[in-house]
């Protein structure tokens, strides 16, 4: 189908284009308790078309989707409508990426050589192995094995294809406490197949559900405390810096930082080193090239706390005068820190396991949120706590961040599993 769409586009005079074909095959299982309710497979293809047209002083752009069920005359009509709409979108002119003769599809992951049904069966065993309590149980589970094939073609000769695959697990446990019945939520998205790791995460989730059911309030006098954040919140912090250092933010003069700025000096912290990559170990979204067809290479944007480089897509890179834009990334890696997790537990702390809705406001520098479940160590005893909030100033507290030596992957982020921050405000 993609070749037919491109043939129709080539018939049009005075336009440029890009077409992305995304084919996705899935194996999906839905459980209520330990009973399989639905088991299905899907095979879907979608086509994303963008048309560009140059005018005297600007470059128009319009996009639309195509279903493989549509007839060619319908597609031709969609193309013509998109060309007509281009006159209403007045972008600064820029050049589309050109094809690299050396490009090869080198994508690979653990799932490549595995059978989907066998993977699903083993995942089910690993998850429900942790469901062995009387007062708590896994209420629902969804398991998706996704296989993607992406092909991108444009009017400058690009014709690239890459493959990726991932496993998605959603688990909702229920636990009956003395005063209330609670539920937690956890999802796992990975391309690294490790059934023992899946079991351990399901086991930890059940333990957290039990802890949440008996969690207490913090002492009222506690107004500040050392805080340990899990990897999901570290990923959110890293993502905020990745966004801030994009070409688009800089072009719109919304950037808080510029190349050469020093975020921290390492005197009382672990300086961040962040590298953008086409893939990290266990990523849920590996990409050899971005949405414009730029082939991705490792891109170090922060080194030892100093901003080294901006990054972004073809359009905004061109607007900033960048000769070879880096491309748009989905994967980021943060180098490990200097402190072992065990050493973070030596002084009083609150380990914030689950937030209701963690927040990070880049321009006010506020970060924090309401904590649904945490573990408080008062210097003598450790017990589960709930019903409180933490709040801090990201750019001030960054100067005191200590990251763990232990690393893991959360979706498309790989880096330290824990972040230790001293004297955080407790509400």
Walk me through the structure.
The chain is of the alpha+beta class and 427 residues long. The chain folds into 2 domains: 2-213, PmbA/TldD fold, CATH 3.30.2290; 224-426, no CATH class. It is built from 9 helices and 21 strands. The strands form 3 sheets. Strands 1, 2, 3, 4, 5, 6 and 7 form a 7-stranded antiparallel sheet that branches. Helix 1 packs across helix 2 (72-85) and helix 3 (116-128) runs parallel beside helix 4 (195-213). The longest helix has 19 residues, at 195-213.
Topology summary:
Elements: H1 2-10, E1 15-32, E2 35-54, E3 59-66, H2 72-85, H3 116-128, E4 136-154, E5 159-176, E6 181-183, E7 186-190, H4 195-213, E8 224-230, H5 231-244, H6 247-251, E9 274-277, E10 299-303, E11 306-307, H7 314-319, E12 331-334, H8 341-344, E13 349-355, E14 359-361, E15 366-377, E16 382-385, E17 388-393, H9 394-397, E18 402-403, E19 407-410, E20 413-416, E21 418-426
Parallel strand pairs: 8-13, 12-20
Antiparallel strand pairs: 1-2, 1-4, 2-3, 4-5, 5-6, 5-7, 8-21, 9-10, 9-12, 10-11, 13-15, 14-15, 15-16, 15-17, 17-21, 18-21, 19-20
Concise structural overview:
This protein is 21% helix and 38% strand. With 427 residues, it is an alpha+beta fold.
Largest sheet: 7 strands, antiparallel
Work out the number of β strands.
21
**Average pLDDT taken over every residue:** 96
CATH class of the largest domain: Alpha Beta
In CATH, the homologous superfamily of the largest domain goes by the name PmbA/TldD superfamily
Q: Would you tell me which CATH topology of the largest domain applies?
A: PmbA/TldD fold
